Amino acid sequence: MNPLVLLLGGFFVLIALRVNIGFSLILSSVFVILWEDLPLTSVINQMYSNIDSFTLLAVPFFMFLGRILNAGSITDRLLKVADASVGHVRGGLGHVNVFVSMVFASLSGSAAADTASVGSILIPAMKKAGYSPAFSVALTAASSTLGVIIPPSIILIVYGAFGNVSIGALFLGGIVPGITIGLFMMGYTYVMALREGYPANPFPGLLGLAKALWRGAAAMLIPVFVLGGVIAGIFTPTEAAISAVIWALILTFVIYRDVPLRELPGLLSHATMDFAVPLFTVAGAGIFGWLIAFLGAADIVVNFITSQTSDPVGIMLLLIGFLLLIGTVLNPISAVLIFLPIIQALGDTAGMNPVHMGVLTTIVLSVGLITPPYGICLLIAAQIGDVPLGKAMLAVTPIVGLTVLVAIGSIFFPDIVLALPKLSFPVIFAN
């Protein structure tokens, strides 16, 4: 039997049997290594080399940051900023939902954390105000995926670290498409509000807006530490994450004092457990990805796709379809780590800039967070809103279409992604 078929088939069979994804990666890889009579030491070597990364340390710090934000009043302050800014527009709570997700995305980079924290507040509030439960769930889940696209994005960090692409350039590349998707969601919300008669919140006045901005200003400095530090070359992504955590700790435990200091060890332990599973998955993806490359999967996929079309646009559209498919069964981190050789090979064949390729991949894989069977954000939101998953899927479909539309649009108009990176990193684009 073809070892590549054996590797992928074994992996997806284990996933179907609900085996942990890290164990699925490792077990299927070890089986193929034994089948091909390769040295078992490759397993340890590749697993270790995949997690031996200073850049990867940024991920647990951002997860810890998300825990801090949810423990104190920072999320509540951001909600008040959003409400004062856009709550008075027709469909007010829906706009607040999207707006705060865009801001929250620039703080923690975690979609699941956004869904849980913002959703637990806004989904009941939207239902109480007369919004359809399915729409409330769908909008919350979909807007939370902006945390994957708008920097600091954990997926962009992983892509840059393992794909040898500038993380600063990737961060900048995610800003415009992330904000564009957010604005499309707000436009969709406005249309739904007109059609369904969803209300607007009263405008608090300029004084109320100023007060909300003042209360949330310190928290909104966190993106300055992260994005500004990385782009200016002051921080590495890991150092930027550490600086953001330190500022969040100062706000929560010293300035706001809304969380007792005795809870800090608990926050640390929860953040450690949050990172344990992804780290194990990263280790397992190291050996699996190495086998994917060793067995020539990238060449096989590229040859197959180019046999269907030689047009760069056609190649990229087929890649988008491939990423949408694997995103339904794999979380974005695993998908990037496993299929990175194939993604980059197709990008090179189509003549795509590596920064553009990384951002496009991230946008498309973010859809997997709201499309079952993986669809973790949709699952969390549906549970909070007590909405059947089928109804939630139906309600989220138009928003999925908007996200895919932006991804496809970036193929025809690359500057949607590349304009800001070109301005800040001209050396990367010199050739």
Query: Number of DSSP helices?
Result: 22
Question: What ranges have pLDDT less than 50 throughout 5 or more consecutive residues?
Answer: none
Q: State the end-to-end distance.
A: 44 Å
Q: What is the average per-residue confidence, as pLDDT, rounded to a whole number?
A: 87
Largest sheet: none
The helix-strand sequence is: HHHHHHHHHHHHHHHHHHHHHH
What is the 3D form? globular
The number of E-state strands comes to: 0
Number of domains: 1
Q: How much helix is in the residues?
A: over 70%
**Beta-strand content:** under 5%
Task: Provide a quick synopsis of the model.
Helix content is 78%, strand content 0%.
Describe, in plain words, how this protein is organized in 3D.
This protein has one domain (3-418). It is 78% helix and 0% strand. It is built from 22 helices and no strands. The protein has helices at 3-16, 21-35, 41-51, 58-71, 74-86, 92-108, 111-128, 133-144, 146-149, 154-163, 167-196, 205-217, 222-231, 237-255, 264-294, 297-308, 312-327, 332-350, 354-366, 376-385, 389-412, 415-424. The longest helix has 31 residues, at 264-294. The radius of gyration is 22 Å and the shape is globular.
What descriptors fit this protein?
mainly alpha
Write the layout of secondary structure elements.
Blueprint (H helix, E strand, L loop, with lengths): L2 H14 L4 H15 L5 H11 L6 H14 L2 H13 L5 H17 L2 H18 L4 H12 L1 H4 L4 H10 L3 H30 L8 H13 L4 H10 L5 H19 L8 H31 L2 H12 L3 H16 L4 H19 L3 H13 L9 H10 L3 H24 L2 H10 L7
